[in-house]
């Protein structure tokens, strides 16, 4: 998640830098290994409409009088970006798919000629540029959706950053072969990311800065001790860990647990606090910590395998990108037969059954 957040912030930072340099309309630079992705600097196709066009049409880059300079510049810059046609979306999706496959081949190949490696690297580069083009062409969609969530505890700038995280997820998971427009698919991811950000960060209670800093320090210590002890830390343990007086720790805990009416209105659209409360099936903090520790243990176990074995298992069981690939699909990616992939998987599973690896995971496996 941190990598995604950093990338989302980088998009805004890059646009601000372009605005200050007066080169906001200059297309991305190309080096000797880059490609002109779809000729996106050509005249825009007037047929560039989509199921999400209504969302984009709400974007008004001119209504920025009350915004701070960085945000105003960002909105003005993305307002000048061109929408994609359905054909361009499909072609970008194809380039991204080819780039991912090339990246997997590079990771899984034991030997490869220099010429083949150069071609694969060029394909990876084209995929990365296609991903960037798809993202930048849809930044306006994020803003139009983010505006609907104002007044719920986050600034518009923060809402946009949360939405950009959802946009990046949508770009990475978009399947152009299904035939629907990208904006239709991305809208759901953007809304989900913004709603989660509002739920996790938004608050109608504003604490003084120094109190907020102390509260954050106690919260970080609580998470550390939860992982260490497997239970909630006592106020005394938190006071010792943070070197904050016990009385103040108890006050901070009390502030964090202030009750609020489930029917309390949030924002101006009639939404209530109940709209943002986690459902019964949501994970508890302890469950979330356990899941994090399990992922770390799995990563450590996979590290004991050869690069090819690890790659095959990551693809086969959806560890890499959430999609479970078939033996044939993996074989096509790695230029191997289906039977050879099955043999590699079998060998990897045999290694995972070794006693030292079983001990790492057995406490997480239900009887």
Walk me through what this model shows.
The structure is a single chain. The protein is mainly α. The protein has 16 helices and no strands. The relative contact order is 0.08.
SSE arrangement:
Layout: H1 2-21, H2 53-57, H3 69-79, H4 86-108, H5 114-136, H6 139-146, H7 156-173, H8 182-201, H9 209-229, H10 235-242, H11 246-256, H12 285-302, H13 307-316, H14 327-334, H15 338-352, H16 355-361
Helix pairs in contact: 1-3, 1-7, 4-5, 6-7, 6-8, 7-8, 9-10, 9-11, 10-11, 13-15, 14-15
The CATH topology of the largest domain corresponds to: Four Helix Bundle (Hemerythrin (Met), subunit A)
Largest beta sheet, briefly?
none
Our estimate of the beta-strand percent is under 5%
In CATH terms, what is the architecture of the largest domain? Up-down Bundle
Instruction: Name the structural class.
Output: mainly alpha
List key phrases describing it:
single chain, about 375 residues, mainly alpha, Four Helix Bundle (Hemerythrin (Met), subunit A), Arc Repressor Mutant, subunit A, 3 domains, 16 helices, about 60% helix, disordered C terminus
Brief write-up:
With 367 residues, the protein is mainly α.
């Amino acid at each position: 998640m941190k990598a995604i957040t950093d990338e989302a912030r980088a998009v805004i930072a890059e646009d601000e830098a372009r605005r200050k340099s007066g080169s906001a309309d200059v297309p991305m630079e190309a080096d000797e290994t880059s490609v002109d992705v779809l000729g996106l600097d050509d005249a825009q196709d007037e047929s560039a409409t989509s199921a999400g066009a209504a969302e984009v049409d709400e974007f008004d880059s001119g209504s920025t009088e009350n915004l701070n300079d960085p945000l105003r510049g960002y909105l003005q810059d993305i307002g000048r970006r061109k929408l994609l046609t359905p054909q361009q979306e499909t072609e970008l999706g194809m380039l991204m798919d080819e780039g991912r496959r090339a990246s997997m081949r590079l990771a899984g190949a034991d030997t490869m000629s220099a010429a083949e490696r150069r071609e694969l690297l060029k394909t990876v580069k084209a995929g990365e540029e296609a991903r960037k083009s798809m993202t930048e062409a849809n930044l306006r969609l994020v803003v139009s959706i983010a505006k609907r969530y104002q007044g719920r505890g986050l600034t518009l700038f923060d809402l946009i950053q949360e939405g950009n995280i959802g946009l990046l997820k949508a770009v990475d998971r978009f399947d152009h072969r299904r035939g629907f427009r990208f904006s239709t698919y991305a809208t759901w991811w953007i809304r989900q990311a913004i709603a989660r950000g509002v739920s996790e960060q938004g608050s109608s209670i504003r604490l003084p800065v120094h109190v907020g800093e102390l509260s954050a320090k106690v919260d970080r210590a609580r998470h550390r001790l939860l992982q260490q002890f497997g239970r909630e830390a006592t106020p005394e343990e938190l006071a010792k860990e943070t070197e904050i007086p016990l009385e103040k720790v108890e006050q901070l805990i009390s502030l964090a647990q202030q009750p609020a009416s489930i029917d309390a209105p949030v924002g101006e659209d009639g939404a209530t606090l109940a709209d943002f409360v986690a459902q019964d099936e949501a994970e508890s903090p302890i469950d979330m910590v356990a899941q994090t520790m399990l992922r770390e243990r799995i990563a450590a176990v996979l590290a004991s395998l050869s690069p090819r074995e690890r790659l095959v298992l990551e693809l086969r069981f959806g560890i890499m990108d959430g999609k479970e690939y078939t033996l044939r699909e993996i074989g096509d990616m790695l230029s191997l037969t289906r039977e050879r992939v099955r043999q590699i998987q079998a060998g990897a599973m045999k290694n995972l059954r070794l006693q030292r690896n079983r001990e790492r995971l057995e406490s997480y496996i239900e009887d």
